[in-house]
From TrEMBL:
Pfam families: HTH_18, Response_reg
Designated name of the protein: Response regulator
Keyword Transcription regulation: yes
Cellular localisation: Cytoplasm
Length: 518
């Protein structure tokens, strides 16, 4: 079944065409409807029709303008115009857009069926031709874009000119090299973004041709009519990047070449666009990046080992602003001079290794938040998405080390807390007082009360009671023990007090708790 898109600003007529014409009998299914050209472009993006039946006179964007843009989006789509006016100017315009036919309202179903039979036959012929010629065209354009030999480039241009739908050999154009830079992109979202880009480019009224470089990188030749068109092309890609991020959560980066004038120059313009796209490593992903020539970068001004000493001094003295400034200077130099990615990674690895060596005693068993050890994610260092990501990683890692240093300074009394907890866990069954605990750690009772509450969030008595009640819960599982025996075993001589305290914490009495267990 072939898909048709119906476009008419008259709702009653649109509904009649959709519901009362026997499309299925013609081998056609209605894929979508729209009430004007602008809306139709969006519907076309979603349903990808083979045939479009559109009214000529419509508000916002008329049928002729829409058909022209639709042809730019999909040169193989078949256009049939519909109008209540048998006017030569419309028929002439329709022919210029290579329309398949022009029907007058009200529609004659027999005439429509005859025309659709011709349209479907043309769809079948074009499909066979397209599959052959488009495959050839893509191979030729790919070859031209990477060809080193000037003589061979002339050969590829001559062969492209012989295709059924050739690229212009002369004319201003820009090469757009774009990449999907999200962590993961579904095939559905990738196709949606590629279609979105095609729609936006079609709105520029410019000729363009696109081909895949690999699974996540694509290239487009966009022909221009002058400097204003270049600015519009940049605006167009800004919109594509923004919508791709908002609608599909896809990060798209676009490199633009300088303006070319001859197709034979495609190799140079392709190289510029690819290099511009590669500059996302320095400027960040999710941007439009025009090509800028860069001189060869000099060596790094600061040796990583010397810089490590400066950075370690700032870290050890908890000078976070100074550490941030040193790291920023380290990466700013690379960004300004466009130092090669491999050289940047090598310098960063050397810097981190030296910092690791200097802080080895501190980092050996240290953790952040008592959860994860501080280790270097070498994969993130060796395969960074951008200079910005590498900068952020080194900053975060330095901050982690400073956090450990602060924790070490603040938690010198943790040993005291651990001694108190250990003593409670061992002697909970005895008459244990705060004074006993204070004497054990050689501190005053008031000081350990404050310190324990500060570090654990609960008082010493609350912790002691919690340990005793938990131990009582375990002992109650042994039905041979009487309640008063359990009470004494956990340090309470007064059984009534024990029962009251147990019920307060567990919501039931010791006897009720035991019955629930048995």
């Amino acid at each position: 079944m072939y898909k048709i898109l119906l476009v008419d600003d008259e709702k009653l007529e649109l509904d009649a065409i959709k519901h009362y014409i026997r499309w299925e009998d013609m081998g056609i299914v209605v894929a979508g409807t729209a009430k004007n050209g602008r809306e139709a472009l969006k519907v076309m993006e979603a349903c990808k029709p083979d045939i479009i039946l559109t009214d000529v006179r419509m508000p916002i964007m008329n049928g002729l303008e829409f058909a022209s843009k639709a042809k730019q989006m999909d040169k193989n789509v078949k256009i049939v115009f519909l109008s209540g006016h048998d006017e030569f100017q419309y028929i002439k315009a329709a022919l210029s857009i290579e329309a398949m036919g022009y029907l007058l309202k009200p529609i004659d179903t027999a005439e429509l069926a005859q025309l659709m039979q011709r349209v479907i036959l043309k769809c079948q012929e074009d499909k066979q031709l397209s599959e052959s010629s488009e495959g050839t065209k893509e191979k030729l354009v790919r070859s031209l874009s990477i060809e080193q030999s000037a003589d061979m480039r002339k050969k590829w241009v001559r062969r492209i000119a012989m295709l059924p739908y050739p690229l212009p050999s002369i004319g201003m154009y820009t090469v757009c090299f774009y990449s999907f830079d999200s962590d993961s992109v579904s095939s559905k979202n990738k196709e949606a973004v590629l279609t979105l880009a095609a729609v936006k480019l079609a709105e520029l009224n410019t000729v363009s041709y696109s081909w895949p470089v690999d699974e996540f990188r694509y290239c487009t030749i966009a022909y221009l009519n002058g400097e204003p068109d270049y600015a519009e092309l940049m605006r167009c890609w800004h919109e594509v990047i923004g919508e791709a991020n908002i609608r599909y959560e896809v990060v798209l980066s676009v490199g633009l070449s300088e303006v070319g004038r001859y197709l034979e120059e495609l190799h140079d313009r392709y190289g510029e666009a690819r290099e511009a796209n590669g500059d996302k490593f320095y400027s960040g992903t999710g941007r439009v990046i025009p090509y800028t020539p860069h001189a060869a970068s000099p060596a790094s001004p600061a040796q990583p080992i010397a810089l490590a000493e400066q950075l370690s001094h700032a870290i050890s003295h908890l000078q976070s602003d100074e550490a941030a400034s040193i790291i920023a200077g380290f990466f700013d130099y690379f960004a300004t001079n466009r130092t090669s990615k491999d050289a940047i990674i090598a310098s960063t690895m050397q810097l981190i290794s030296e910092i690791e060596r200097l802080f080895a005693p501190l980092l050996e068993n240290s953790t952040v938040g008592s959860e994860h050890p501080i280790i270097v994610d070498w994969k993130a260092v060796m395969e960074p998405e951008s200079l910005e990501h590498l900068h952020a990683f080194l900053t975060a890692w330095s901050n982690q080390i400073m956090h450990v240093i602060r924790e070490k300074d603040h938690d010198k009394n943790l040993t005291v807390i651990h001694q108190i907890i250990e003593m409670i866990n061992i002697r909970y069954g005895q008459a244990l007082t705060v004074e006993d605990l204070a004497e054990h750690v050689y501190l005053t009772p008031n000081y350990i009360r404050t310190l324990f509450k500060q570090k654990t969030g609960e008082t010493i008595l609350e912790y002691l009671t919690k340990v005793r009640i938990q131990r009582a819960s375990d002992l109650l599982k042994d039905k041979s023990l009487k309640i008063h025996e359990v009470s004494r075993a956990i340090g309470y001589e007064n059984v009534s007090y024990f029962c009251s305290l147990f019920q307060k914490h567990k919501g039931v009495t010791p006897n009720q708790y035991r019955k629930k267990l048995l």
